[in-house]
Design brief:
- The complex is a heterodimer of chains A (330) and B (898).
- Helices cover 31% and strands 16% of the residues of chain A.
- Chain A has 330 residues and is α+β, with helices and mostly antiparallel strands.
- In chain A, the strands form 4 sheets. Chain A has a 4-stranded mixed β-sheet with strand order 9-1-11-10. Chain A has a 3-stranded antiparallel β-sheet with strand order 3-2-4. In chain A, strands 5-6 form a two-stranded antiparallel ribbon.
- In chain A, helix 1 runs antiparallel to helix 2.
- Chain A is globular.
- Among the domains of chain B are: 207 residues, Dimethylsulfoxide Reductase, domain 2 (3-Layer(aba) Sandwich), CATH 3.40.228; 206 residues, Beta Barrel (Barwin-like endoglucanases), CATH 2.40.40.20.
- The two termini of chain B are 48 Å apart.
- Classes of the chains: A alpha+beta (330), B alpha/beta (898).
- At the A-B interface, helix 4, helix 6 and strand 4 of A face helix 1, helix 2, helix 22, helix 23 and strand 25 of B.
- Chain A: One of its GO terms (biological process) is formate oxidation.
- Chain A: It is found in: Cell envelope.
């Protein structure tokens, strides 16, 4: 559907060039952004099936990028399993979600019922109530638990709405195909925040500017891997050329399927999806919603050409109507 | 393992990717369980029953690796006629002395050709009760007693008194049904584990066991490991690639601080600390070991070389190589004994280094009362930890038991350099020494440990210079000549490593086989000999894995002799051929007349498999070419331990000291020789069946989270780590929450006879009630990282624990105890003492006090309950002692009579 629309839009001049850079498959966003001879596009493949939830990625990211503590004053226990970070924000560029699920005993298979979506916190009043009680030791024995862990990060979209809407040019597409905010240019307008379909980027309260993962732009220039991928002990976070990562991910998926893990799936790896494929994609063991990820993200600026077209049409109609009104008077 | 050792866990993940089956046995569902193929929730404190069930499964289904068992274990050894097992004595072994609460080990010995006892001193452990126990058990554990007579054997394993048959009878009761009843592990789940373990053992495959302090911190901790050792020996999983039992140590270089020990009862290289009564001179000290077969037979060479390393020129043949300069033990000088001696005013000064006992040790109140009764206290750490700040903000200040203005302890808090700020080595769990180089200078006044002790020693020696007092000789005679460099006069860490390695007439030694007992060699730790071979720091070897095979002999250096798998002679059959091509590791090369393979052979490289010792051969020469367990005097893995353990030659299930369950196997409920200390602030919860036991119907266990480091000194003070787990919490199942009215994220109070603490509640299905002995048993999970300091103050979980110890190694039972849990916060200030006193005394009617958190009525002065029935023949040890009448310590931390 996305592709259809894109084709449709693309076929309609004069918005063709704009449509292409806002949505649909795009082989090389760096060239599209004007880098004449860019290096290979790089990204993350986060294989959540081997994540052990150690949060080394969160800490390594903060250490390297000098990101302030998420909540300076007396951080509180969130009560969402072992997750006390809550969400991606200006001060959390990696976030490990912990999802506790009930499954048929001893299967380790698909969940019978999801009890925690790992979503951003509901208000305290709702949190106060304990999870519903189980039937007791006997009833409980028929069920096991499954604990999913997943390290979330900025997706570095092929079509990045944050970048599209940034009025100052603070957000830009790097030669590696990643999306970075330049701290010294950001004026804190905050347009990028609602533009992100994943809720990744946020504003630092005491500062006013927007911050997010840079995919360690400063390290890439020195031939280093991003801090999170370097720190990950189990290679759950893999860094490399995007094409290679996609191949690796497909092989891993195939292997998991062969081993009977039918619920494994890739998320964000498809260049035909609503953001033109993510530069940081995932292997998940359940529906994306379970991890707090939108199931079918679409670049929020996708319909911009349509909107402009309709606006232009409306303006034209209005102008014609006005003109007609005047003409009609005659 | 994923929780506490996430970096090491990457290798488990790698094994899993290659097809390994990962089984996780743990009371809680943890990060490790999340990655395991099978999680087995178990009642904490029942692992011997579980492992014993596996041993029984192996023996009943004849899944043992029979050739390996016959050739390499002591299964064929025949025991004495007067040995009696627990089945006959209702949970006791023969040799129990009810008065001294100790075993005489005489009857545990092998029957010998001469008809005598194989034990060197017969009933030695019983001689002077528990007080004299120092390090001989550890050493015997590694070496075994000297056996003058040859033991009788039956290679067919059919003799009714051979170890194999005794073992079979001993574990026959550990059926899947019993495992289910005791551990709460359903039979089918247990059988899945048994099948996985046995299917992956034998000629072609091996199974490894990994454990951490979840196994060691019990009153039967040593016997937990023994059970695993028995199982792995039966399955042929020792000395072979992919096998073994991996002890995951608590933090970086804890292995190193056992090898070069910070323990009162050991000298470097597991030499026992001499005893003031038993060892008047060097000859008496080395004599028991010098007769042994195996490498302990060279005891005199190791000891003399150590003395030469420390006292150099001053140590001569004429003065017994300064043997008299060594400190001697006169009894139990363990950490908990020392704390009680502090409270009693017998210990005046205390060094606390890299440890936070006010939070990390069992019964924190005892620790803090001890700290408050010193003349001086030196704490060296990165930050002001609770052990340094107890005098101003400890829990006893809040309750009024201590007042800052009345604490006389002078506290010296000295900033320590972190591991990135100093050179040195870490010895990891695999016995691997890895060198680290200083990255930055320590900030401000922070200094390395090496700097501190070197200069402290230098200043002390300067002050004593010219002294003629004989007691100053040990200090003045020390070789204290390490080269220093830089503005701060930092001693050279590599020079210390070289001294540890040892030197002879030709410079750095290459192997401990070069050590001599005539004073011509000096060596600071015989097992580390070779780390500086060829005058090269081999701990700093860093050839990447892409440039060598996976044995990786050129990455770091592993003691002993850079051997990566201990006892690797066992990877080949008695004739020296690999057991299988798939598990090929070390083999005898007949053409070249030497052992070859991928690792450093754990046998003299040219000792032929057919070699048989002559009558007068000694030490390693007295072991045959088919004897892989070269540290044992019989060269065999011990299924049955004729010596070395104080609480039995075979592991047997005892309940934890505080357990809401009786022992399903025997009348003897808990370890009959467990160690505890009677002190008014160390009362025990009534155990199963005793009056008042129903006040503490739940079980708790303590543990670590990935986000924090042990007692929190290195993590609770760092915002990035603290915010990841910002508050002390307890984990409970929805069922327990329902039963006790606990609500997610609200507060709970957890109570034992020692104290009450409060924690936020996490209700989670990762905690599961278990069916145990026909009832539902709930377990409470408590991470122990928190204390009153740092960025997230919280109550210390270890304050709930009593000091009850494993008798062999004096480790506290921190992983299993009983408690009550109730909703709401604990009382504050002096009301907390009243609240706990009410629990101790049983309140009105002896039942659990009503749910009146914050309103605890005074029950002080009430009569304590009678002695608890613990099933022990004699109530004066174990948990049979009477809890004291509650009373308040006076302001100096001592108890007032009431």
């Amino acid at each position: 559907m996305t592709a259809d629309r894109t084709e449709q839009s693309a076929s309609e001049a004069p918005m063709e060039w704009l449509s292409a850079s806002l949505a649909g498959p795009l082989a090389d966003p760096a060239t599209d952004a004007g880098h004449p001879h860019p290096p290979e596009r790089v990204g993350f493949f986060t294989d959540t099936s081997v994540c052990i939830g150690c949060k080394a990625c969160e800490v390594a990211c903060k250490e390297w990028n000098l990101v302030p503590p998420t909540r300076d004053e007396a951080p509180d226990l969130l009560g969402t399993s072992f997750d006390n970070t809550g969400e991606l924000s200006a001060n959390s560029w990696r976030h490990v979600a912990f999802v506790e699920q009930r499954v048929p005993a001893g299967t380790g298979g698909r969940p019978a019922e999801a009890v925690d979506l790992g979503m951003p916190q509901p208000p305290p009043a709702e949190r106060d109530r304990a999870p519903e009680a189980a039937p007791g030791a006997d009833g409980g024995a028929a069920e096991g638990v499954r604990w999913l862990m997943s390290s979330d990060v900025c997706k570095h979209c092929t079509h990045a709405a944050c970048l599209d809407v940034c009025p100052t040019g603070a957000l830009f597409r790097t030669e590696y195909g990643t999306v970075v905010v330049q701290e010294d240019i950001c004026n804190g307008c905050g347009y990028c925040i609602p533009a992100c379909p994943y809720g990744v980027i946020g504003k630092r309260e005491d500062d006013g500017r927007a911050f997010k993962c840079t995919l360690c732009y400063d390290r890439l220039g020195s031939g280093l891997e991003p801090a999170c991928a370097t720190a990950c002990p189990t290679d759950s976070i893999q860094f490399g050329p995007l094409e290679e990562l996609r191949e690796r991910a497909n092989a891993r998926l195939e292997r998991l399927h062969e081993a009977g893990t039918a619920e494994a799936r890739l998320y964000g790896a498809d260049p035909g999806d609503g953001v033109g494929g993510a530069g940081a994609f995932f292997l998940l063991l359940d529906e994306p919603e379970v991890y707090g990820l939108p199931p079918d993200p679409v670049v929020t600026t996708r319909d911009l050409p349509d909107i402009w077209r309709h606006a232009a049409l409306a303006a034209g109609v209005a102008a014609a109507a006005v003109a007609a009104a005047f003409l009609g008077r005659r | 393992m994923a929780e506490a050792h996430p970096v090491g866990f990457q290798w488990v993940m790698e094994a899993k990717l290659r097809g390994a089956t990962v089984v996780h046995v743990d009371p809680r569902y943890t990060r490790t369980s999340a990655q395991a193929d099978l999680h087995v929730p178990i009642r904490t404190g029942t692992d011997i029953a579980f492992l014993g069930g596996l041993v029984n499964y192996v023996l009943t289904h004849q899944k043992d690796f029979r050739e390996y068992v016959v050739a390499y274990t002591n299964a064929p050894m025949i025991l004495r006629e007067d040995f009696r097992d627990t089945d006959e004595l209702d949970g006791l072994f023969s040799g129990f002395d009810p008065e001294g609460r100790a075993y005489s080990t005489e009857t545990w010995a092998y029957a010998t050709e001469g008809g005598g006892s194989g034990g060197e001193e017969g009933g030695r452990p019983g001689h002077r009760g528990h007080e004299q126990e120092t390090a001989r058990p550890e050493q015997h554990g590694m070496g075994g007693a000297s056996t003058a007579d040859r033991p009788l054997t039956d290679p067919t394993l059919r003799h009714p008194r051979c170890v194999y048959q005794v073992l079979k009878r001993h574990f026959a009761r550990y059926t899947p049904e019993l495992v289910a009843e005791v551990c709460g592990v359903p039979e089918e789940l247990f059988e899945r584990v048994a099948e996985a373990v046995t299917a992956n053992s034998g000629r072609e495959r091996t199974t490894a066991f990994c454990y951490a302090v979840g196994w060691t911190q019990h009153t039967v901790g040593v016997q937990y490991i023994r059970t695993a050792a028995i199982l792995q020996s039966l399955l042929g999983n020792i000395g072979r690639p992919g096998g073994g039992i991996m002890a995951l140590r608590g933090h970086a270089s804890i292995q190193g601080s056992t090898d070069i020990p910070t323990l009162y009862n050991l000298l470097p290289g597991y030499l026992p600390m001499p005893d003031a009564h038993d060892h008047p001179d060097l000859a008496a000290y080395v004599e028991p070991d010098s007769q042994k077969a195996g490498w302990w037979g060279n005891m005199r060479a190791y000891t003399v070389s150590l003395l030469k390393a420390w006292w150099g020129e001053a140590a001569t043949e004429d003065n017994d190589f300064c043997f008299d300069h060594l400190p001697k033990t006169t009894g139990d000088h363990g950490t908990y004994r020392t704390v009680l001696d502090q409270i009693a005013g017998k210990v005046k000064g205390y060094f606390v280094v890299g440890e936070n006992p006010a939070v990390g040790s069992a019964n924190g109140k005892l620790q803090r009362l001890g700290l408050a009764n010193l003349d001086w206290l030196v704490v060296r750490d990165l930050v002001e930890i609770e052990t340094a700040s107890f005098w101003k903000d400890g829990p006893e200040i809040e309750t009024g038991e201590l007042r800052p203005e009345e604490i006389g302890t002078e506290v010296f808090l000295l900033p320590a350099a972190s591991h990135t700020e100093k050179d040195g080595s870490f010895t990891n769990t695999q016995r691997l020494l890895q060198w680290r180089h200083k990255a930055v200078e320590p900030a401000g006044d922070a200094r390395s440990e090496l700097w501190f002790y070197y200069h402290l020693g230098r200043l002390l020696r300067e002050r004593l210079a010219g002294s003629t007092d004989p007691r100053d000789r040990p200090l003045l005679d020390l070789t204290w000549d390490y080269p220093v460099s830089g503005e701060r006069a930092e001693p050279d860490a590599a020079a210390v490593l070289r001294e540890i390695n040892g030197v002879g007439p030709d410079g750095a030694l290459s192997t401990y086989a070069e050590l001599r007992d005539d004073g011509s060699t000096a060596c600071g730790c015989w097992i580390y000999c070779g780390v500086y071979a060829g005058e090269r720091n081999r701990a700093a070897a860093r050839t990447p894995r892409s440039e060598q095979d996976e044995v990786a002999l050129d990455w770091g250096w592993a003691w002993p002799a850079n051997r990566r798998i201990l006892y690797n002679r066992a990877s080949a059959d008695p004739q020296g051929r690999p057991w299988s091509e798939r598990k090929r590791y070390l083999w005898w090369d007949e053409e070249r007349g030497r052992w070859t393979g991928r690792d450093v052979p754990d046998i003299s490289v040219d000792k032929h498999p057919d070699y048989r010792p002559s009558e007068d051969a000694r030490a390693q020469e007295a072991l045959g070419g088919d004897a892989p367990f070269i540290m044992q005097n019989d060269g065999r893995a011990w299924l049955f331990a004729p010596e070395g353990t104080l609480d039995g030659p075979l592991p047997t299930h005892y309940e934890p000291t505080e357990s809401p369950c009786g022992n399903a196997l025997y009348g003897q409920r808990a370890n009959p020789v467990l160690q505890t200390y009677r002190h008014p602030e160390n009362p025990l919860n009534p155990a199963d069946g005793a009056p008042g036991a129903d006040r503490f119907p739940y079980v708790f266990t303590t543990y670590r989270l990935t986000e924090h480091h042990t007692a929190g000194g290195m993590s609770r003070t760092l915002p990035y780590l603290n915010e990841l787990q910002p508050e002390f919490f307890c984990e409970v199942s929805p069922e327990l929450a329902e039963e006790r009215g606990l609500r997610h994220l609200e507060w709970a109070t957890i109570v034992t006879a020692r104290t009450a603490i409060e924690a936020r509640v996490l209700v989670t299905r990762r905690m599961r009630p278990l069916k145990v002995r026909g009832r539902t048993l709930h377990q409470v999970g408590l991470p122990y990282h928190w204390g009153h300091g740092g960025l997230s103050p919280g109550d210390p979980a270890n304050d709930l624990l009593a000091v009850v110890l494993d008798p062999n190694v004096h480790i506290q039972e921190a992983k299993a105890a009983s408690c009550d849990i109730r909703p709401g916060r604990r009382p504050r200030g002096p009301a907390l003492l009243d609240f706990v006193a009410e629990y101790r005394s049983g309140g009105e009617g002896g039942a659990r006090p009503a749910d009146r958190v914050h309103e605890g009525q005074s029950a002080r002065g009430a009569e304590p309950p009678g002695p608890h029935e613990d099933g022990a023949p004699d109530g004066h040890r174990g948990n049979g002692h009477r809890p004291p009448a509650p009373s308040r310590p006076d302001r100096r931390g001592r108890k007032r009579d009431r």
